[in-house]
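Appendix C reproduces, verbatim, an entry submitted by the partner laboratory led by Prof. M.T., so that reviewers can inspect both the input and the predicted structure.
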Amino acid sequence: MTIMQYKHPDIASLERITRDLTEIERLARQYGFSYVELDGDIGIIGNGAGLTMATMDLVYHYGGKPANFLDIGGGARRERVKEALKLLLKNPRVKAIFMNIFGGITRCDEVAIGVIEALREVDVKKPLIIRLVGTNEEEGRKILMEAGIKCYDNDEEAAREIVKLIGGE
């Protein structure tokens, strides 16, 4: 036992928790993401805990099972979006990804550029559904549509579509 562990036993317990994380959870922690693995097969990315949880609820409602909770937070720039998407693209349990973005502080064009960069960098193809609404929405949609990625403005329609894509509903 180190002096630090003796004086701060709460830190010792945190070290144990860190060791119990999966590789993907460790990577998510390095990027500062709020990330929790679940037992489903639909990857979830949202900006804000409430929106991310509501997205998971929609997927459950339409017969799907979320593989994770991944909140990129408000104001996420392209690099953060790129790393979040790469994390789920590399996860073998994730069959499809539903990204639900409501851009207030987060700019939709930054999100779109991050998505395109992630898809270029990772040689893994998975169905991707994006609901994109908010600041610079038109620019973001244009960027994604030019890359062949369909955008939704209705989260329920997007949730139904992602579940259908993997054989649910």
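The two ends are 54 Å apart (CA to CA). Additional entries are available on request from the coordinating office.
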